[in-house]
Amino acid sequence: MRKLSVLLTAATLAACGQPSDENQATELATEPQPLSVFAAAVANDARPEKDRARDAGRKPAEVLEFLGITEGMTVLDMFSGGGYYTEILASVVGTGGKVVAHSNEAYLKFVGDEFNARYENNRLPNVEILMAENNELSLAAGSLDAIMMVLSYHDLVIDDAENGWPLIDVPALLAEFHKGLKPGGIVGVIDHYAEAGAPAETGNSLHRIDPAIVIAGMEAAGFVLEEQSDLLRNPDDDLARIVFDPELRGKTDRFVMRFRKPE
């Protein structure tokens, strides 16, 4: 009996000295986990407060991870506007990568002082500014790993030359994208949903576009639709309303698509 008692005591002490699987899981859960490169870019303290206010509706970390943007890439931010995505991309691609921020006079007027404030004092040293008016974009062959078009594909069908926006030759622009991308390169397209079957002119009136128009145009240019994401869906959006409606702005139903140039 004495031997059995000693063995039981030793076993009990050994069990007390070993953490249970549950305790180990609890300890791991409470340890701070490192941020992904995407979450770290969004959490960057240098980002303007105005940008941070847009994050909840745009989910940039999740979008860029879905699109497959990685460190060291050269990325064209087409119609980059005030540079919201340009700044996040600059953090994600890092010092070994580059972001080409495209703009034109019409976009500069639209975003106002935001553009200059973004780039003053060389605060984003791995960003190159590319000014090119409609139908004047020229890209070096095979110079890009990815292209992003955020809330701007619908602009390709707008015809407003009086206000500095002549109609874009869409096949020619997409051909330039195809030329500029390396084999296997990515095109990410995010835009506001229009009603299924809505004409292209909806891009002019409501600033929305039927995703079928985007897919048809991109596939005709030689790109392959690899995947779509529901990250930015909003079933409560009224697709008959203009996206600039104050009650709707920033809350539209949006599609996210990843196209690829075949190897």
Account of the protein in words:
The chain has twelve helices and seven strands. The chain is of the alpha/beta class and 263 residues long. The chain has one domain: Vaccinia Virus protein VP39 (Rossmann fold). The protein has a seven-stranded mixed sheet with strand order 3-2-1-4-5-7-6.
Strand portion, in percent? 15-25%
Distance between the termini: 76 Å
Largest sheet entry: 7 strands, mixed
Structural category is alpha/beta
Tell me the CATH superfamily.
Vaccinia Virus protein VP39
CATH fold annotation: Rossmann fold
Number of H- or I-type helical stretches? 12
Q: What does the overall shape look like?
A: globular
CATH architecture: 3-Layer(aba) Sandwich
Radius of gyration (Å): 24 Å
Q: Domain count, please report it.
A: 1
Mean pLDDT: 90
